[in-house]
Amino acid sequence: MAQPGIAGHAVIAPLQKIPPQIAALADYEAFARDRIEPGAWAYINGGAGDEWTLRENVAAFTRLPLRTRVLRSMQGASTALNLFGCAMDAPILIAPMAFHGLCHPDGEAATALAAGATGTTLVVSTQAGQPIEHVAQAAPGPLWFQLYIQPDRAFTERLVARVEAAGYRALVLTVDAPVTGVRNAEARAGFTLPPHIRAVNLEGLNHPAPGPEGALLFGTPLLESVPMWEDIAWLRTLTRLPILLKGIVDPDDALRALDCGIDGLIVSNHGGRTLDGVPAAIDLLPAIAEVVDGQVPLLMDGGVRRGTDVLRALALGANAVLVGRPILHALATAGALGVAHALRVLRAEFELAMALTACRTLGDIDSGCLYQNMRDNPGDRR
What we know:
Blueprint: E1 2-4, E2 10-12, H1 28-33, H2 38-45, H3 52-59, E3 81-83, E4 86-88, E5 92-94, H4 107-117, E6 121-124, H5 132-138, E7 143-147, H6 153-165, E8 171-174, H7 184-188, H8 221-224, H9 229-236, E9 243-246, H10 251-259, E10 264-268, H11 281-292, E11 298-301, H12 307-315, E12 320-323, H13 325-356
Parallel strand pairs: 5-6, 5-12, 6-7, 7-8, 8-9, 9-10, 10-11, 11-12
Antiparallel strand pairs: 1-2, 3-4
Helix pairs in contact: 4-5, 4-13, 10-11, 12-13
């Protein structure tokens, strides 16, 4: 049944039951597109520039063939892990994404409910459409909070205090988007937020003054107030929560982050939404993993669509992955039910991949699971 959507566009109501046609995360996309207004679809699904990085994030996984192993014991097999005191059923988190209300009326609360019900940690966006306290009340499991350091540092300090008071377990500081990327698809669609959806957790923020007339980016207050490395030390004085940096793609930046005493790193190119032309996140992961060398937890975000992708990321050095757009597709399709189903499908695929590569625990997953290493070391690594 169709219902009025944003700007009068008719959208189909969310499903109350998952149909058999949805067997994998990718199957949600077509169902979601019928349920999201076209401008919002361009905002959610679009990337920067020509969207090369957006496509590479997914395509790069297909260039990493898996190595099947047989006749190994799988007794006591487990996907469980613990990150910063948060028990997780699998090394899969939900990436921070803005405005879940564009996909479903229940917004972030529905996503949080599904995450907790499946032993999955949700990273709530600074630009959530619901108050951080409301999302926390809806969540039966642990939450992390994704933070942008605002030009108004006093406002940022108050926001961090709210996050702590609401019981969030970690801060994920996004560092790769000091400015918004060139998003042509979004611009062509003429997307603007509908009146009932807004960044409620940023209300009361003092925004920078507008730049000089005719200025583009350079010389504007926006660029002059972006966070720098010195702000990491300042943020540390505000909270006892673990701090992860999201958006690290260069080994030198990873080393500097370690020198700053950061608690964790997330390899991410912002889902291909900031700078087009950056390599796929999975291709950037090995160099970061090499310099981090297990000193802090290392996560990866970008292009995960299958349980086999989770295994590939762990084989290249990640401790866990974050999943983005497919979760919003599932949310649009069937609300909390869709998100829970999508997470279970992904975990089931991951368990199957572990079983067929003879990895009984997460610690068994290493580069020997990938054929790319066989030329140098064709022997049995376990």
